[in-house]
């Protein structure tokens, strides 16, 4: 019931309008009382619908003990040792290259707690990846060549299967039970989600062929979005290298899940 209402709201609104709608639906209470349910649901749906809201800022605020909904500007780390700010008030000065998100580049930032935010962005990436897979699957079923749907061709089926496996693996990483090292778990989950989304973008673009390159097709919206989300809070490549360097320095691998 809640998921259906959220999906309908996100399909109808985005940006400040969606912020207001989420506030009315009790987003702050959900984040405070049931974050383990609210964050995966809201951010996965943001990815699936292609909408956006400043809920990520609320996740960071809540994790750092600040008031949810505060308009304070928090610099967020971005790929390449860069920083960005999510502008939740004004649309002026927004960089149009950043996936259509209200992000503004900053010259410098300061360390903040990002583990919870990385999990949120991970779910956003997974949702976007599932949206791209759905578009590619629908096209593969509808597009006919040599008298049969291209979904029957082995090469196309392999692309779709590889994408699904990557998405399911990333989602499993995001849902790992609590560990003694939540920062590392979140880092690895964000890296896995970023890799899955990039895999989805690459494979779904191949399945859709020329139509997937057109600005009019929904795929391009998701591709641009995941390229930005992968870089936000550390790209999948950077995070993987960081985790590897940490493990080498430690000399052992910590337990990430209590099975």
From TrEMBL:
UniProt GO MF annotations: acyl-CoA dehydrogenase activity
GO cellular component: cytoplasm
Stretch forming the signal peptide: none
An individual GO BP term: fatty acid beta-oxidation using acyl-CoA dehydrogenase
Domain Acyl-CoA dehydrogenase/oxidase C-terminal residue range list: 115-236
Keyword Flavoprotein: yes
Keyword annotations of the record: FAD, Flavoprotein, Oxidoreductase
Keyword flag Oxidoreductase: yes
Top-level taxon of the source organism: Bacteria
PANTHER family, sorted: MEDIUM-CHAIN SPECIFIC ACYL-COA DEHYDROGENASE, MITOCHONDRIAL, MEDIUM-CHAIN SPECIFIC ACYL-COA DEHYDROGENASE, MITOCHONDRIAL-RELATED
Protein name (record): Acyl-CoA dehydrogenase
């Amino acid at each position: 019931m809640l998921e259906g209402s959220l999906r309908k709201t996100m399909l109808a609104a985005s940006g400040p309008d969606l912020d207001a709608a989420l506030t009315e639906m009790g987003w702050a209470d959900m984040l405070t009382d049931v974050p383990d349910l609210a964050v995966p649901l809201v951010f996965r749906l943001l990815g699936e619908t292609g909408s956006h809201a400043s809920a990520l800022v609320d996740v960071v605020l809540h994790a750092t003990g600040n008031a949810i909904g505060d308009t304070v500007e928090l610099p967020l780390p971005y790929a390449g040792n860069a920083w960005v700010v999510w502008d939740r008030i004004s649309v002026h000065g927004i960089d149009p290259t950043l996936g259509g998100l209200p992000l503004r580049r900053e010259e410098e930032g300061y360390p903040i707690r990002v583990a919870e935010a990385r999990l949120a962005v991970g779910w956003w990436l997974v949702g976007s990846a599932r949206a791209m897979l759905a578009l590619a699957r629908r096209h593969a079923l509808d597009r006919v060549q040599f008298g049969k749907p291209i979904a029957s061709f082995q090469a196309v089926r392999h692309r779709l299967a590889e994408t699904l496996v990557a998405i399911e693996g990333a989602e499993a990483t995001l849902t790992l039970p609590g560990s003694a090292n939540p920062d590392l778990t979140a880092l690895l989950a964000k890296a896995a989600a970023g890799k899955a989304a990039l895999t989805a973008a690459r494979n779904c673009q191949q399945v859709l062929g020329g139509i997937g390159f057109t600005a009019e097709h929904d795929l391009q919206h998701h591709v641009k979005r995941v390229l930005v989300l992968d870089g936000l809070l550390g790209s999948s490549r950077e995070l993987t290298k960081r985790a590897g360097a940490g493990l080498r320095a430690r000399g052992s691998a910590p337990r990430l899940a209590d099975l």
